[in-house]
Amino acid sequence: MEWQEKWDVVVVGSGAGGLVAAITAAYNGQKVLLVEKSDVFGGSSALSGGGLWIPNNHVSKKAGLQDSEEEALTYMEDVIEDKGPASTHERKVAYIKNGSKMVSFLEKLGMQWIAAPLYPDYYPERPGGKIGRSIEGDVFDLRELGEYESLLRKGLMEMPFPLYSGRVYSVPRTFTSMKDFTNVSGMLFSGIKYKLQGKHATSIGQGLVSRLIKMALLQGVTIRLSAPLKDLIIENDEIIGVEIEQDDVPHFIETKAVILAGGGFERNEELRRKYHNIGSEWSSASIGNQGDMLLIAQKHNLDTALLDEAWWGPTAINDDGSPSFLVYERSLPHTIIVDQEGNRYFNEAESYVDAGRAMLDQQEKAKKAIPSWMIMESRHRNRYLFGSMMPRMVPKKLLNSGWLKRADSIEDLAKICGIDVEGLRKTIDRFNTFVDNGKDEDYKRGDSAYDNYYGDPAYTNPNLGHINKPPFYAVKVYPGDLGTKGGIVADEHGQALRDGKPITGLYATGNCSASVMGKVYPGPGSTLGPTTVFGYISANHIKSTMFEEAEVETI
């Protein structure tokens, strides 16, 4: 093998997990190269809400959270029913014990954290469940990145002002209460202030990865874009190098350690059909996530798990073909989701992973759940935002394209949508009786504090409202996702496994690995939390096992 260059650690992927791994390894004294397939940095992390679910962290506790490692482990053991190799007791313990350490470590290097004290775990009533374990980065001025500002991954739709994911619950209700209006106005006025100061302010996912990029550069990490990983070079169960592509030419790098932090396979049509029996067009993740890490892992016979799973969620496909991941829209009153027979089949306000999985299960059982339909009554359309539609807005473009259906009766709406008329009528009549009583007897919508978080507190049950006042609206809903959650199996140190044994020097984190969260989504930030924490764990394990002789100051 003729090596073109040599590095201590090579990190693959520039999302949050890869950046934290690179920052940690560089701080520990290693010479670090971060390679990114795309010509922009940030991956799906830059398109995300930017929150991290980190139990027992000091930022949340300072904001009033009472938490402990024991309560966090109780919660994770209770809600993560999958007992597969990725969600072992040891991995959960490692996640909990190192999460708070990572938060403190990054803060001392320049990260500015904000707590989300009102954001519940997704099963807060379960043993060990809490409200307020999620944190996020503060607003960041992109000017601090210099030439790297133009290299940040951008979403299809940019927010007109910086916001916090822990306060986004107010956005769809902006015009329903003075409290929500004041909350949103505060964020809006802050955005105006930033503009007047000449700042290029950003937040949520973009803000998080931008600040991490700055921190990585300050630690001396070399970042190389348009440099996809093509292969791992392994000898005698030990990593000795990688092959990347640079300027369309194979390029061989000698290294002692590799941390894989690339995306999943959600945008690979063939792999999606193979493992999920659906296409890739409903995913909200980065288009570059083509399963490169999985295919390389399979070539080298690495252990994999959870390949049939993703970070599911009900998704509307916009008239331009782009996906719109539905979070708050389905939780608010005066709406339900039904299959083509007109039947409700899940709690519309539950965790998006559970809701998306329910859609897939219903499709397998009844064959008429893809697409399903979100039915909205006039008061939903008049009170709340829906995607980019302001309250009371019913754009003719959307009606003419057929994306949004409208009718003056439930029967006519059912006919327009191809929904069984009698089935929808019976479902809505039954649902309206639940509204009368304030209790969803079928699916317990509104019973959980998580349901209520995105509901409307002006209602007796914040998630229930009658569907009887015309006009009525409908939008097709599909089982989309934020990314796949299956891939390489790693142990509690982040080491990639083959036949249950670690490959020396090879680590995996993020959506290219099998998630410690198993088949569920315990709380807000359950993707970014694990990818960053296990990136941190992996880099520290490299230091302790390969570079311990180096005298490095520790935080």
Q: Can you describe this structure?
A:
This protein is of the alpha+beta class and 555 residues long. It is 31% helix and 20% strand. The protein contains 15 helices and 21 strands. It has helices at residues 16-27, 58-62, 69-79, 89-108, 178-196, 204-218, 269-276, 292-299, 352-366, 378-383, 396-401, 410-417, 421-437, 449-453, 528-546; strands at 5-12, 32-35, 51-53, 113-115, 134-137, 140-141, 201-202, 222-224, 229-235, 238-246, 249-260, 304-305, 310-317, 323-325, 335-338, 372-377, 405-407, 472-484, 487-488, 495-498, 501-508. The longest helix is centred in the N-terminal third of the chain and has 20 residues, at 89-108. Mean pLDDT is 94; it is low at 550-555.
Q: Give the radius of gyration.
A: 23 Å
User: How far is the first residue's CA from the last residue's CA?
Assistant: 39 Å
Helix percent reads 25-40%
SS-derived structural category: alpha+beta
Oligomer: single chain
Number of helices: 15
Basic shape: globular
Mean pLDDT: 94
User: What profile does the largest beta sheet have?
Assistant: 8 strands, mixed
Uncertain stretches of 5 or more adjacent residues: 550-555
Number of DSSP strand runs:
21
Q: Which percent band covers the strand fraction? A: 15-25%
